[in-house]
Amino acid sequence: MVNKYLEWLLDQLAPCSCQLCGQATGRPVALCEPCQRSLACNSSACPNCALPSAEAGELPCGHCQQQPPAFASTTAPYLYTQPVDGFIKQLKFSADLCQLPVLAELMSRPMAQALRRHGRPDLLVPVPLHWRRQWRRGFNQASLLARQLRHHPLLRDWSLQVDDRLCTRRRATVAQHGLAPEQRRHNIRQAFSCREYVSDLHVVIVDDVMTTGATVEALAREILNQGARRVDVWCCARTPAPTDSIPSGQCKPSAVTPY
User: Fold this and answer.
1) Is residue 226 part of a domain?
2) How many structural domains is the chain composed of?
3) Residue 202 is assigned to a structural domain of this protein
């Protein structure tokens, strides 16, 4: 009750403006509901890897059927396209921490559905950065995002536990951006280590965006090798395969430009 009252009071004293249309949002995030509804949602996707597909349903995509990933499911509610990619880039590369509540708001309802579908995980594990990259950036956006999700009103009753010390990135890989899929897999191979044995635990890996899945695949395999029972992936956005287009009937990218 105290948190709800403080949120209401703050909204009255300093109402948030939507960063896309400039109108008052009526809630404590800089994104109004109409603009949120206009975003490109990943509504038809493979349940395993979240790759957008017009034929997606209960069954995994052809690639996941032939080569099942280490993780059991991926929840990625939006496509990595404008303006969602802008929210993520502003957080990562401009240290715009005001994007954290926006990204958590975008993820909260789909993650609540994932919790009801797959059960409460024992741990949320953010994708770790190498210490040099985290030192240069000043923060790990995946860790901040996991903690923001933990305290979201739709998720706080689940009492989710975030452990950003369980896994480490033991070698400094080159940035994945711009690498081909096979280069990404080679680049990230054996990059992670798990400090503790996680016998029979259900672990959820948290990240901001999933591109080829090479990073979460490598991390999930390391966690499973340490005894985990199940690993799932939560991220805000999914990058379609380069030759893919948005399936017909799916939400189209917003035509709204940043305010």
Assistant:
1) yes
2) 1
3) yes
Question: CATH no. for residue 98?
Answer: 3.40.50.2020
127-157 pLDDT, tens digit per residue, is: 999 999 899 999 999 999 999 999 999 999 9
pLDDT at 81: 95
pLDDT at 208 (0 to 100): 97
Q: Report the predicted TM-score, pTM, of the whole model to 2 decimal places.
A: 0.84
3-state secondary structure the chain: CHHHHHHHHHHHHCCCECCCCCCECCCCCCCCHHHHHCCCECCCECCCCCCECCCCCCCCCHHHHHCCCCCCEEECCEECCCCHHHHHHHHHHHCCCCHHHHHHHHHHHHHHHHHHHHCCCCEEEECCCCHHHHHHHCCCHHHHHHHHHHCCCCCHHHCCCECCCCEEECCCCCCCCCCCHHHHHHHHCCCEEECCCCCCCEEEEEEEEECCCHHHHHHHHHHHHCCCCEEEEEEEEECCCCCCCCCCCCCCCCCCCCC
- Is the residue at 253 inside a domain? no
pLDDT digits (tens, 9 = 90+) for 93-121: 999 999 999 999 999 999 999 999 999 99
Q: Would residue 200 count as lying in a domain?
A: yes
- For 169, the domain range is 46-57+69-238
